[in-house]
UniProtKB/TrEMBL annotation:
Protein name: DUF725 domain-containing protein
Species assigned in the record: Syphacia muris
PANTHER family: CPG4 DOMAIN-CONTAINING PROTEIN, PROTEIN CBG02791-RELATED
Keyword terms: Signal
Lineage: Eukaryota, Metazoa, Ecdysozoa, Nematoda, Chromadorea
Extent of the signal sequence: 1-21
Length: 205
């Protein structure tokens, strides 16, 4: 579950780029701000110190099962409030659609398949460390790329931003392939399918 939280933080960074690419809209910025606060709260629990993300911080967080339920509650509460917030926004519907697409992965675990996700959550928590060890290379690579991406955003280096996004997409695909086998082994095919769908929806935009 902590890994899922980390993937949400990464997808949130990309979502903010979408919002920034369009004319300012206070309502949309308020709605995405709800999700950004959630991302910051999760980051504070998983990584120390911010803004750099590391595999070792994430691995240490996986040793604390209580983070799993906290992360889930933060994610789902923020998703529901942000989704309701978007209903009240006027302006470019394409932007609203893009934002909702970036949150589609949360709709799966918080609404559409909430019961199924909660059924497999205990297995995720029990086996997260083992899965992380087996996929350490791909997880570390993904975190390193997002660190580089965040640096490029701060420096407004458009070329570096685009190359980081391309590298991130490739690395996310590799990570998904790596996670599939151990998740299937320890938690079953349905659990693995849900993880893969979560990743696919979170980074489809």
């Amino acid at each position: 579950m902590n890994l899922i939280g980390a993937l949400f933080i990464i997808s949130m960074d990309l979502t903010l780029l979408v919002v920034d690419a369009f004319p300012p809209n206070e309502c949309l910025e308020h709605c995405t701000g709800i999700m950004q606060i959630a991302a910051d709260n999760i980051s504070n629990g998983l990584f120390d110190p911010l803004p750099k993300f590391s595999w070792s911080d994430l691995y240490q967080a996986s040793q604390k099962p209580e983070y799993a339920s906290q992360t889930y509650e933060i994610l789902c509460d923020a998703y529901k409030r942000a989704d309701s917030c978007l209903n009240n926004c006027q302006g470019n519907p394409d932007v609203t659609t893009r934002i909702r697409q970036s949150y589609a992965s949360l709709k799966i675990v918080c609404v559409d398949q909430k019961r199924e996700f909660l059924d497999i959550l205990p297995c995720f928590v029990r086996t997260e460390q083992v899965v992380m060890e087996q996929c350490k290379k791909d997880i570390s690579g993904t975190l390193n790329i997002i660190n580089s991406f965040n640096d490029a955003v701060k420096e407004r280096n458009q070329h570096h931003i685009q190359s980081s996004i391309s590298n991130l997409c490739r690395n996310i695909n590799q990570l998904a392939k790596c996670l599939e086998k151990p998740t299937t082994k320890y938690c079953g095919k349905n659990a693995a399918d849900m993880v893969l769908r979560y990743i696919a929806l979170g980074f489809s935009g």
